[in-house]
Amino acid sequence: MRYAISTTWRHDNPIDDGALQAMMADSKATAESDGIVEVVWFKLDAHTHGSILLYSSEEAYEKHQERLKEFRKTRTGITLLREEKGPSIAVLSEV
After folding, report:
1. N or C: which end of the chain has fewer CB within 10 A?
2. How many Å apart are CA 44 and CA 19, to the nearest integer?
């Protein structure tokens, strides 16, 4: 069963689309080994973005959280507004 997480982030400065795309490209190589199936970042407004991550399992999510906690400590100027997570109940590509 896949595991999904959705978050919303507030940036102190306007979002730099290119910087976020580069950050995602840099993390692409480790995504599969971290159990990440898909990541989508989307802009809500000039200072807010949302994300959707789909993990191969809840265990993969929990394992990846340790690395994310360390990474997030290095990030300044961005604040987590909300986080929702849970096991998937239906995934279009899997039905």
Report:
1. C
2. 16
Q: What is the pTM of this model?
A: 0.85
Q: Is the dihedral of CA 63, 69, 72, 74 positive or negative?
A: negative
Q: Which of 39, 32, 30, 34 is nearest to 4 (CA)?
A: 39
Mean pLDDT of the region 9-29:
92
Structure tokens at 92: 């279009």
Q: How many CB atoms lie within 10 A of CB 87?
A: 12
Q: What is the DSSP track for 21-61?
A: HHHHHHHHHHHTTTTEEEEEEEEEETTEEEEEEEES-HHHH
In this prediction, residue 50 carries a pLDDT of: 97
CB 15 within 8 A of CB 77: no
> How far apart are alpha carbons 70 and 48 in whole angstroms?
22
Yes or no: say if 8 and 82 are a contact pair by the CB < 8 Å rule. yes
